[in-house]
Design a protein that fits this description.
By secondary structure, the protein is α+β, with helices and mostly antiparallel strands. It is built from two helices and four strands. It comes from Haloferax larsenii.
Length: about 60
C-alpha cells in the first residue's frame, strides 16, 4: 500500500533525510521518500497513517494525510 503525506517545513536535503528516517522507523513501513520541492512524502507499507503523521511531527515538521 502506498501513502502520500503533505509535509511542510523541509528546506534542504538534510530535512528530507530526517523525514525519511522518521518514517522508516515506523512499524510496517518498507520504504519512504521525501521531496521538499513538492512538500510530499511517499510511504510504502502498511503503517497506520496517524503513526506516520506523528513520526514526521516528532521529527520537527508539519504533516497532513
Amino acid at each position: 500500500m502506498s501513502t502520500t503525506l503533505t509535509v511542510t517545513g523541509m528546506t534542504c536535503e538534510h530535512c528530507e533525510g530526517r523525514v525519511v528516517d522518521a518514517l522508516e522507523s515506523v512499524s510496517g513501513v518498507t520504504s519512504a521518500t521525501a521531496d521538499r520541492e513538492t512538500d510530499t512524502a511517499t510511504i510504502e507499507g502498511d503503517a497506520d497513517v496517524d503513526s506516520l503523521v506523528s513520526a514526521v511531527e516528532d521529527a520537527g515538521y508539519d504533516a497532513d494525510a
